[in-house]
Write a structure and sequence with these properties.
There is one protein chain. The protein is 33% helix and 27% strand. It is of the alpha+beta class. It has a domain at 96-201 and 244-363. A hairpin with a 3-residue loop joins strand 6 and strand 7. The longest helix has 17 residues, at 113-129. It is globular and about 55 Å long.
Length: 370
């Protein structure tokens, strides 16, 4: 199976146990059957071969021709092929038994197997794979198109990015690009582009106030799943969420890439009313680096350990965080120089209904920048 993801051709192979899940998780990406793969992802139950040259700490291994990043849910080996193709070997760890069932009941999502697999695939394989390419950079943002032009809503976790985007889903002009991580690059014509990320949107309990989202995300789920959501939602709407395929949530999907026109940073501040103001490009770049650095620290730790092992053994690191950040700063500075950047200051205690209404007015252009 070949798919066009983040502007690259990805080739996927898997054992029989994961083929159905893989097809479901990648269904919304464009096919790329005629292209040569730039990334090959192999999912199997067997660890990739290769004795480690160093393992400091024990869950990071430096290999002769790559590195292994070990997480509680998966072991992932990264290598470069001789033709410049990135080779990614993934071993997902099994989850079963009483401990798993208890953990599932206590979790935010009560995720089924496909939802769990989809999250691991995007967060531990697809998004980190972009770090190895010098023309791509991530933004911790939701992204939609309006009349074909992309606008990004960025910020820290819990700032209200997804809630604002969900409030616009009934607008016929709106197309879905991504929910959580946007990947940016420049096109051959120097246009700033946002690539589709079809990771499934996460819907929190508070996103369901005053609309039909609660019924939509619980449709077809078992009684225990529905009970889990309703009880946790009653306790605290911020501690429960569900995932749903983007095409089940939005009228239109942008499966490849869209030209970027606007970037908004949502910032919670001690103010009385919501405010929209201009944001300097250099500030937007540094804010992006800070947020992504914090949000993806679980993978970034491995890049620091790769540098440590390289220094300790006198070898070259496959990839370091220094290299990644320098590349991101360059790509983002180029991309955002052609994008209108804004700061959206939101009061701490603004209620969800007022917030969603205000954000729709701003994002659709009904409110001008001060």
């Amino acid at each position: 199976m070949k798919k066009l993801i983040f502007g690259k051709c990805y080739s996927f192979s898997s054992d029989a146990d994961h083929q159905i899940w893989l097809a479901e998780c990648l269904a919304l990406y464009a096919d790329a059957d005629e292209l040569e793969p730039q990334v090959e992802v192999c999912i199997s139950g067997e660890e990739a071969s290769g004795a480690p040259l160093a393992a400091n700490p024990r869950f990071h291994r430096m290999l002769e021709d790559g590195m292994l990043t070990s997480f509680p849910a998966a072991d992932i080996t990264w290598r470069w092929a001789g033709n410049g193709c990135l080779l990614v070997h993934v071993v997902f760890k099994t989850r079963d038994g009483i401990k798993h069932r208890v953990k599932k009941l206590l979790s935010m999502e009560y995720a089924n197997d496909v939802e769990y697999f989809e999250q691991l695939l995007h967060e531990f394989v697809l998004v980190p794979s972009t770090y190895f390419f010098g023309d791509l950079a991530p933004v911790h943002a939701s992204c939609m198109t309006m009349d074909g032009a992309a606008f990004l809503l960025a910020g820290t976790g819990g700032a209200g990015k997804s809630a604002a985007m969900l409030a616009m889903r009934s607008d016929a002009r709106i197309g879905f690009v991504c929910d959580d991580i946007a990947i940016m690059s420049t096109s051959a014509s120097s246009r700033s582009m946002v690539h589709a990320n079809m990771a499934w949107p996460k819907i929190y309990g508070y996103d369901c106030f005053g609309n039909e989202l609660g019924d939509l995300i619980l449709e077809g789920r078992g009684w225990l799943d529905r009970t889990h959501f309703r009880v946790k939602n009653w306790i605290d709407p911020a501690i429960v969420r569900r995932k749903i395929r983007p095409d089940h949530l939005y009228r239109a999907i942008e499966p490849m890439a869209a030209p970027a026109s606007r970037l908004y940073y949502v910032v919670r501040e001690g103010i009385a009313d919501i405010r929209l103001s201009s944001l300097r490009v250099d500030n937007a770049v540094e804010m992006t680096l800070a947020v992504v650095g914090a949000e993806y620290s679980i993978f970034h730790d491995h890049l620091y350990w790769e540098k440590y092992n390289a220094l300790a053994t006198g070898r070259n690191a496959m990839l370091t965080m220094d290299d990644v950040v320098a590349n991101w700063r360059h790509v983002l500075s180029t991309c955002l120089s052609t994008v209108s950047c804004f700061k959206l200051s939101v009061p701490f205690d603004m209620d969800h209904v007022t917030y969603r209404r205000s954000m729709v007015e701003i994002l659709t252009g009904e409110v001008a920048c001060s």
